[in-house]
Amino acid sequence: MKNLIALGVFLLVSQFAFGQDTKSTIEALERKRFAAQVSKDFDFLDKVFADDLSYTHSGGKMDNKTSYIASIKEGKSVYDKIDVEEITVRSYEQDKVAVVNGKITITQPGADGKPMLVHLRYVVVYNKNGKKGWQLNTWQSLKLAN
Description:
The protein is α+β, with helices and mostly antiparallel strands. It has one domain: Nuclear Transport Factor 2, Chain: A.
């Protein structure tokens, strides 16, 4: 009986620790992705975005992986700075799926030369691909009032 209780406690603690590791991994990945969008690290973006990416901007425009990366390359999506204000990660499916809810402030160049601030709430879905690791499948954002 003691062995059964010990096994149960071990499994519970292991699951909690494994989930925490996933959460910290995804949070770090999110921060690295934002930095890559600012620095235009296209190699990283190509790896982190899944081939079936669905990227819905706060204004409703949708992009896939190819069109979104192209929008950054062509200067249509420009990010001078992205500040993470809130980030919450929940993991599912035995840590193979992660859902992120967050709040960010994006600094973009304004038409008048003054920085423009965009406040967003967002939801992201990551899936763990056996060969490619964690990949972002879905981005959906909502513009908040300044």
